[in-house]
Design goal:
The protein has 148 residues and is of the alpha+beta class. The chain is built from two helices and eight strands, in the order H-E-E-H-E-E-E-E-E-E. Strands 1-2-3-4-8-7-6-5 form an eight-stranded antiparallel β-sheet. Strand 3 and strand 4 form a beta hairpin. The chain is globular and about 35 Å long.
Length: 148
């Protein structure tokens, strides 16, 4: 009888833990990578992403941006961002800029190899490239010893 009770309690605990994990927020996950903690967030629109205080979605991203995906280093300041443009373009504060020479240490299957070299705009310190398949942005790591 105790064995059945123990299995029931164990199963209920597992279900509760799974429900807690899956209800932590749509499109958000936290995973350990070899280069530090990384949080991945995704939203249907820029406006939805800006409403999440944990997303840190930059204010220059248009509200009507679609399929927004961001990879955030939680132990530093490095970020990768991709979205599909809506009717709005980049705001006027995004100016022509030099491509970033330093490659990101973050990796994502949606971030093209060498994309940092194609960033030709500066939006509030973000290196941005407008490509045929989306807008890509990279914020360079500025925190000293972020990987330690």
């Amino acid at each position: 009888m105790n064995n059945v009770r123990n299995k029931t309690v164990l199963a209920a605990t597992g279900i509760a833990a799974l429900a807690t994990i899956t209800s932590c927020g749509l499109g958000a996950s936290l995973e350990e990578k070899s280069n530090g903690h990384v949080k991945a967030v995704s939203y249907d629109t820029g406006k939805q992403g800006k409403a999440n205080p944990d997303a840190r979605l930059p204010s220059w991203v248009p509200d009507d941006a679609k399929s927004v995906t961001e990879l955030i280093r939680t132990t530093g300041s490095e970020r990768l961002l991709r979205y599909l443009p809506g009717p709005s373009s980049l705001p006027a504060r995004c100016k022509p800029g030099k491509a970033e020479a330093k490659a990101p240490t973050l990796t994502a299957d949606w971030w093209p190899a060498g994309e940092h070299k194609r960033t030709d705009k500066d939006c509030d310190g973000w290196h941005v490239a407008v490509e045929p398949d989306g807008v890509y942005a990279y914020q360079v790591e500025t925190v000293v010893n972020a990987d330690k």
